Amino acid sequence: MNHPTSQPMADVRDMYMVHTFLSREFGLLPQLVRDVAPGDTARAEVVGSHAALLCSILHKHHEGEDLHLWPRLQERAAAQAAAIVPRMEAQHHAIEAVNTVILALLPQWRRTAHNGDGLADALEQLHSVLMEHMALEEQEILPLAASHLTAAEWKLLGEHSMSDTPKKHLPVAFGMAMYEADPDVIKTVLAGAPLPARLLMPFIGPRVYAAHAKRVHGTATPPTVGRRHP
Predict the structure, then answer these.
(1) Are 148 and 76 in contact (CB under 8 A)?
(2) How far apart are the two ends of the chain, measured CA to CA in Å?
(3) Average pLDDT of 4-27?
(4) Record's InterPro entries (predicted)?
(5) Are 29 and 127 within 8 A, CB to CB?
(6) Burial letters 156-182, b for 16+ CB under 10 A, else e
(7) In angstroms, rounded to a whole number, what is the distance separating the alpha carbons of residues 14 and 173?
(8) pLDDT tens digit sequence for 40-85
(9) Do residues 228 and 138 touch, judged by C-beta distance below 8 A?
């Protein structure tokens, strides 16, 4: 199946924005867990709810790729896709397996703030496999997506990532993504959003994330990882 060449093609820069914030937040999580004092359930709830939100975002992000990206690449970039998509899918399965372990460990830790080492170890494992996956995706998949998916098709990934996300979590999710993002990419991402979100999110997102980061990281300006880019 061929896509109509008259349509604008995918601008994949927003994927680098997503990868940047996932790299930062998942990289900081293991130590956040280890730093919670045994029995400090108030702090465990703050860190644990942040971890649960990130795990949910990651799951929906990868689910969107499974549904909307791999099939189109396999249809349109046959040999190139055949060489890399199965590896991407295998990495998704590995990441989801660790994500499932983390989600199983979180509830009890949030309630008791005891035995956090296993949770921290699982988060470290997740960060390791996620970093490998994102690097390979940027090297091999994003150039294919830019050549073979239309802008409208690419937009489906972002829409899927936000589907089922409670509205109260959207500003902090956007704020996390915007923290190290290229302003031009932010503007492009919001261009198709409803007018209120397009006007307000550039102001609300950073403020909500700053307050969230203060609670979670102890600072409104947590350590950056450096903007990922093409």
Answers:
(1) yes
(2) 27
(3) 92
(4) Hemerythrin-like
(5) yes
(6) bbbebbbeeeeeeebbbbbbbbbbbbb
(7) 14
(8) 999 999 999 999 999 999 999 999 999 999 999 999 999 999 999 9
(9) yes
Chain mean position to CA 223? 17
- Are the C-beta atoms of 77 and 84 separated by less than 8 Å? no
Distance, in Å, from the CA atom of 102 to the CA atom of 3, rounded to the nearest integer, reads: 39
Contact between 97 and 105 under an 8 Å Cβ cutoff? The reply is: no
Cα-flanking dihedrals φ and ψ of residue 132, to 5°? -60, -45
Domains of the chain: 13-162 (1.20.120.520)
Token representation of residue 53: 């939100």
H/E element, 62:
helix 41-68
| Cα–Cα distance for residue pair 127/109, rounded to 1 Å | 19
CA distance 4 to 82: 22
Q: Record the pTM.
A: 0.95
Q: What is the distance between the alpha carbons of residues 128 and 165, in angstroms, rounded to a whole number?
A: 25
